[in-house]
Amino acid sequence: MALMNENYLRLPGSYLFSEIARRVTQFKNENPDADIIRLGIGDVTRPLPPAVIEAMKKAVDEMGKAETFRGYGPEQGYDFLIEKIIENDYKTRGVDFSLDEVYVSDGAKSDTANFQEIFGAGNVMAVTDPVYPVYVDSNVMAGRTGNFNAEKGQYESIVYLPCTEENGMKPPFPTTHVDMIYLCFPNNPTGMTLNRAELKQWVDYARENKSIILYDSAYESYIREEEVPRTIYEIEGAREVAVEFRSFSKTAGFTGTRCAYTVVPKEVMVYDSEGNPHSLNKLWLRRQTTKFNGVSYPVQAAAAAIYTLEGKKQVKETIDYYMENARIIREGLTKAGYEVFGGINAPYIWMKTPNKMGSWEFFDKLMKEANVVGTPGAGFGANGEGYFRLTAFGTRENTEKAIERIKTKMSS
Fold first, then answer.
1. Spatial CA neighbour of 321 closest among 393, 390, 225
2. Residues 6+ apart with CB under 8 A from 316
3. Consecutive H or E run containing 368
4. pLDDT 10s digits, 106-132
5. Maximum Cα interatomic distance, the chain, rounded to a whole number of Å
6. From 201, 324, 338, 399, which residue has the greatest number of CB atoms within 10 Å?
7. CA distances from 259 to 50, 187, 230, 333, 412 (A)
8. Cα dist. 220→147, 227, 254, 312 in Å?
């Protein structure tokens, strides 16, 4: 008899976005003529930049010739892409890394979910609340979270850092010791950011407490305000305590193409049961070379094209397009009387539901009355209840149409 990993029984009945898809499908079946506008899941709608397409075509042609064909590539990524990542994303911010500190992968979601495998099951983890569900769910699977308290909507062994209106949607410091700290800025789902002074406090906290920050920076390309750091490594001491996750999905349209990277500085240490330090970088290399075969050559060649002059220009145009959508949503909702957050340095708008309405109740009401789909805040944690997330990744036409519907069709 094969026994299961019973930690899976501690997971919610379904992944947040699967439940959204189920409800939308049911509504469509019951209302086949409904014109649904989806501003829920963070999938992009703009096509891949032309420079990316050309580079990918060239790489595919190379794979069709014996003299340029490539088989298995390095699990941690090709040097030609890693060099461009370091040169453009870090040296421009006064930060440098060696090639073996950057790991190319198939997505920030995969890496943020998989990275916890390196840590012992007894480690205490802290997450912001609301939070991107993958951080929590992957640790549940590993047996690090304890049982789920349905009344609180939280796991008993996780330290939750409530991001509320009272604290500006920014996490307070833990009041008890934690070993692993998940931070995401610009934040998904709230769209909020930390300035340099605020992020410096987190780095100092991690150094003082020998904690490790798992820093999801997937949306850094959307930052507009200069006082907001583009990488945690702009902060002194971060190399000793932080791992950073980046993605090409939302910046350059790679949601369906799959390419991202994770930076693991050699200075970051974890400890065995006797207190001996071990390089987190070496452990991640061991994990990746065992469980991951690398991103395909054509995709990495396409990703490298993002850093050409034309690629940079085209990516900026795409990001500007989405941030204009964010402005339309933010200002439109504000004029309609809703209280909103985010949308300035991030493609997410976090809105307060009217009349203290529950998040899922508002989801159903918005879908029924305006035929607009968003994401219930409760799906991101207990402190997300009473809030709702909309994304700026739709088309301009649908974004404008959705806001007009919300203004005119939503009853009080």
1. 393
2. none
3. helix 359-370
4. 999 999 999 999 999 999 999 999 999
5. 67
6. 399
7. 17, 20, 19, 33, 43
8. 34, 13, 15, 15
Amino acid of residue 274: E
Distance, in Å, from the CA atom of 8 to the CA atom of 399, rounded to the nearest integer, reads 37
Rounded to whole angstroms, the Cα distance separating 319 from 359 reads 28
At 138 the three-state DSSP class reads helix
**Residue 43: predicted pLDDT:** 85
Cβ neighbours, 10 Å, residue 6: 8
Which one, of 205, 215, 141, 164, lies nearest residue 185 by Cα?
A: 215
Facing residues of 181 across strands?
126, 213
Type of residue numbered 150: A
CA dist., res. 373 & res. 116, Å (int): 32
Global pTM reads 0.96
What is the per-residue pLDDT across 250-295, written as a single tens digit (0 to 9) for each? 999 999 999 999 999 999 999 999 999 999 999 999 999 999 999 9
Contact 71, 51 (CB under 8 A): no
Q: Is 54:385 a contact under the CB 8 Å cutoff?
A: no
Judging by beta carbons within 10 Å of its beta carbon (0-12, 13-18, 19+), is residue 151 exposed, middle or buried? exposed
> In the chain, which stretches have pLDDT less than 50?
none
On whether the CB atoms of residues 141 and 11 are closer than 8 A, the answer is yes
Q: Are strands 212-216 and 180-184 parallel, antiparallel or unpaired?
A: parallel
Q: Is-contact 96 266, C-beta < 8 A? A: no
